[in-house]
Amino acid sequence: MRILFVIEPSGGGSGRHVVDLARALIDGGHAVSVIYSPLRAEPRFEAEISALALTTLERLPLRRAVGPWDINARRALNRLIARLGPFEIVHGHSAKAGALVRLAATPGAARLYTPHALPMMRPSGPLVRLATGVAEAAMTWIRCDALIAVSEAEIATARGWGLPKGRLHLVPNGVALAPSTDRPAARSALGVADDALVVGFVGRMCPQKDPLRFVQAVRLAQAADPRILGVVIGDGPLMARARAAAGDAVRIIGQRDARPLMTGFDLFAMTSRYEAGAYAMIEAAALGLPIVTTDVGGVDALLDAGARIDRLPNDAEPVQLAQAMVAALAARGPRQAVSMPSLSVERMAEQTLAVYRAAFARRRLGA
Known about the structure:
By secondary structure, the protein is of the alpha/beta class. The chain is built from 13 helices and 13 strands.
């Protein structure tokens, strides 16, 4: 198939998803092109996407915020699609690219959208949520052949807002490689003592991930057990505030490839306000790490796979998280990796292709 990916936030989970999925589709003999925005692109994404055997790679500046500039962005996207095509599939990833793809001229191609967390999942005021939900429903009913969600929680949100059930598909995120199990090397790279009980956080330091709640919880947990040490892998707009609040309880090491470092954790913690299906939590489960998390998307699939997860309410206070951290560390026992064939990149690509073929067949029939 001739496939075009369009993505605005070229980093984090959505960027990784596009790289892994593009690689798997290319390996399967499909022609994949990518248009991405350089405005929020992470260097690692740009290096990895550039290394793929893509048919075409184009940069198109897209702003995250909605505004009049999106009129010109849509026109520019239309020109690129006309020049690079024809395509059978045009697939937008995350909210901005998803909206532009659904509004774009895609002659003959099926339009698909993967939100990587629907905008209605974000905490916001009722008027903003209503406007967002109505817009998403309208664009999906009128201008979308298929919406791919990455968790049951995201599917439930879509259904709750009246998005067409016949166009909703569940394709969980899949990891490409087993995470490293070289614990001594990871501990050395993290710079932590052998007897430290490391509680790890991986993710962008932004309001969605709520790193300040993580820092507060670790400080409370350390007061109960001085061996506990928090480690944050990631950066973002809340880094300075997190550093100021961390004291000696949390070590913030910035943006790194977390995959070879996570085996140095004793516990993985996620304090997000919302998630669709976080890659870091999948990898923590694959390593056999105990997990303390707020109630976000993707947890049920990991529990079904046998992961050890303590799920707290989404609005859990730092003291509740701290108590859960202390209890999980005390009961952690021997580490046993969890086998998750249903959460592999190969499975993700296979399921995505099935959605592509069905959507394109309906498009050709004019349904």
